[in-house]
Write a structure and sequence with these properties.
Strand order of the largest sheet: 2-9-8-7-6-3-4-5
Order of helices and strands: HHEHHEHEHEEHEHEHEEHHHEEHEEEH
Number of helices: 14
Structural class: alpha/beta
Bound molecules: 4'-deoxy-4'-aminopyridoxal-5'-phosphate
Distance between the termini: 44 Å
Shape: globular
């Protein structure tokens, strides 16, 4: 059977996270491994009500094939939200509804990447982006990220003698590290890419989940002709409907639309209508506030527990939003080895390796605080601190 598989799929890394989630099924294990939004905040009754309304409004038309671009009223809502929250002038015509922002990544790969093309990738970076792009077999040009954003010396080095077609960024509360790009860093990255034949992807599924600090202007403000914005309803409404969107300059949008048609004709009209109706009925900012308050206090609980229970030689990021935090062990230690010790202490996380395209035995780990309450966080971090202590004593 193996000889049947295309090279493009054989090269794609499997998601290690699925393996970890198996361990996490044991109820006595505290899991910081999942990357899921907290189900407590899924507006189930509100969505049920919205569903009944759209049935009444549209009848059988709800089930018909629909436009590839997506449901116009939903695109108009997204355009208005960009205007109201970020002052961005984006028309509904430059918005394409996708089956999650994950599909946006795939469509960009499909439309822009030939085998061997250069792609600037955050290191560490979003595992799902590494997977989506790997299908198109690019050359990953890794650029480290730190608490300011992209490490500019590394970006400069990667730009010397190469002309990457794509630069992938998650500038707000990055998955996996929780870091955000500063204003100065965004400016510096934008200046380096300006005028180059290169599209910058600003993947922003967590931008609305800010619990501290001030918002920083999007790359779209600095590089409008070269920026593609990806957005998602997964973290602020529900992930299960698979609804996201992309904003792209006109010539690129035409190609993305062809790719979208070739892939799935269009995203579910039914779920688009339900979410649109939900957004008409409810104040999304009030809903977001509930999520932000919970994630904010859980993140603070995690940082406080780390201050108490982690050895001094372990460092970690202090996110202003999102769902993740990133810890670094002393460089000689392997987070994969720590994982084995942590399982014995009944706590799990994701070791850093899958977030790099070129690394094994890395000393970093991702911890998610979205689905664990403050008390359990303290117990889990204490257990993890114990596993770290054991490792350092060896
Ligand atoms: N981008 C990033 C950075 C993510 O963390 C995720 C979800 N984990 C996605 C994209 C995909 O989200 P969705 O397809 O649900 O919109």
């Amino acid at each position: 059977m193996d000889s049947l598989f295309a090279d493009r799929i054989n090269d794609v890394p499997r998601s290690f996270i699925r393996e970890i989630l198996k361990v996490a099924l044991d109820p006595s294990v505290i899991s910081f491994a999942g990357g899921l939004p907290n189900r407590e905040f899924f507006p189930a009754e509100e969505l049920q009500q919205a569903t009944e309304q759209v049935f009444a409004l549209q009848g059988r038309d709800l089930f018909q094939y629909s436009s590839s671009e997506g449901f116009l009223p939903l695109r108009e809502w997204i355009a208005k939200r960009y205007r109201d929250t970020q002052g961005l002038d984006i028309s509904a015509d430059s918005i394409l509804i996708t089956s999650g922002s994950q599909q946006g990544l795939d469509l960009l790969g499909k439309v822009l990447l030939n085998e061997g093309d250069g792609l600037l990738m955050e290191a560490p970076g979003y595992l799902g982006a590494i997977q989506a792009f790997s299908i198109y077999r690019p050359e990953f040009l890794n650029v480290a990220v730190n608490e300011q954003g992209m490490v500019l010396e590394e970006l400069d080095r990667q730009l010397q003698g190469t002309s990457p077609k794509l630069a992938y960024t998650v500038p707000n509360f990055q998955n996996p590290s929780g870091i955000s790009y500063s204003d100065a860093n965004r400016q510096a990255v934008a200046e380096r890419l300006k005028g180059k034949n290169c599209i910058l992807i600003e993947d922003n599924p967590y931008g609305d989940l800010r619990f501290s600090g001030d918002p920083v202007a999007s790359f779209y403000n600095r590089l409008p002709e070269q920026t593609v914005l990806l957005g998602s309803f997964s973290k602020c409404v529900i992930p299960g409907f698979r609804l996201g969107w992309m904003v792209a300059p006109e010539p690129l949008m035409q190609k993305l639309l062809v790719a979208k048609q070739a892939t799935d004709l269009h995203t579910s009209h039914f779920t688009q209508c339900i979410v649109h109706q939900y957004l008409m009925n409810h104040d999304i900012d009030a809903h977001l506030k509930t999520i932000i308050d919970a994630y904010g206090s859980q993140c603070r609980a995690m940082m406080a527990a780390m201050d108490r229970h982690f050895p001094d030689t372990v460092h970690y990021t202090r996110p202003d939003g999102g769902m993740f935090l990133w810890a670094s062990l002393p460089e000689s230690l392997s987070a994969m080895a720590l994982f084995e010790l942590a399982v014995k202490q009944q706590v799990v996380f994701v070791p850093g390796d899958p977030f790099y395209t070129d690394r094994s035995n890395s000393s970093t780990l991702r911890l998610s605080f979205s689905c664990v309450d403050a008390e359990t966080i303290d117990v889990g971090i204490e257990r993890l601190g114990r596993a770290m202590g054991e490792m350092l004593a060896k």
